[in-house]
Amino acid sequence: MKIRTFVIGLTLCSGYAAAAEPSDKQSMNVIPQAAQLCVSCHGVEGQGVEPLGPRLAGLSKQYISTQLQHFQAGVRQNATMMPMAMTLQGDGIEQVANYFSAKPANEVKPVIRGEQVVFNDDTARLAYQGDWSRGLPACVTCHGPSGLGGGLFPRLAGQQASYIKTQLLAWQSGTRKGDVDGMMANVANKLTAAEVDALANYFANLK
Does residue 112 form part of some domain? Predict the structure, then answer.
């Protein structure tokens, strides 16, 4: 009887411990303290609240961390984000980056370069082949197949068109910096106003 009671007691304790420890999925849904302010503009799931904040879901941890550091250093300028970034101290940036980078983004079937060699649409041609007569590389060269991004290069697929446009204009005006060797500023400054609009809408509507 004592042995049976002991075994039952262990079973109950083990069950309690398992219930008390959150699963990885549950942990992903717990908003860290450092990210509490972020959700008002970027949403709990990182899907963005247009026009307040862009989608963060689908962006890499490395990219989110780097941009927050840029806001803190004034390399990237935004009246709302600069003071918000300054509230992140200690491991705050890491908490925010880990939380939002783990959020799922809409699936987009990647189009691998070379699968299509002729584009009748000028915007698609610019995205996948660039325009070397103007020294413009294809967007997917850095942003990946179908603009899915990775590492220091952000995902463009499914991002808000208004946000993509705003950022291209920021690169043109110099209010956004931090790109290696001025690469994005160089690209953005070769785009016409019509191309900025077209590319923003093209990537935003990739499903």
Answer: no
H-helix or E-strand containing 130? none
Task: Provide the β-strand partners of residue 78.
Answer: none
Confirm whether 2 is domain-assigned: no
* pLDDT per residue rounded down to tens, the chain (207 residues): 444 443 334 343 444 344 344 555 555 679 999 999 999 999 999 999 999 999 999 999 999 999 999 999 999 999 999 999 999 999 999 999 999 999 999 999 998 888 888 999 999 999 999 999 999 999 999 999 999 999 999 999 999 999 999 999 999 999 999 998 999 999 999 999 999 999 999 999 997
Write out the residue range of the structural domain in which residue 81 sits. Answer: 21-101
C-alpha distances (whole Å) from 26 to each of 17, 34, 107 are: 15, 18, 22
Task: Identify the bridge partners of residue 131 per DSSP, sorted by sequence position.
Answer: 136
95 and 126 assigned to the same domain: no
| Rg from Cα positions in the chain | 22
Question: Looking at the domain assignment, is residue 178 inside a domain?
Answer: yes
Evaluate whether residue 6 is within a structural domain: no
Specify the pTM: 0.85
- CATH no. for residue 80? 1.10.760.10
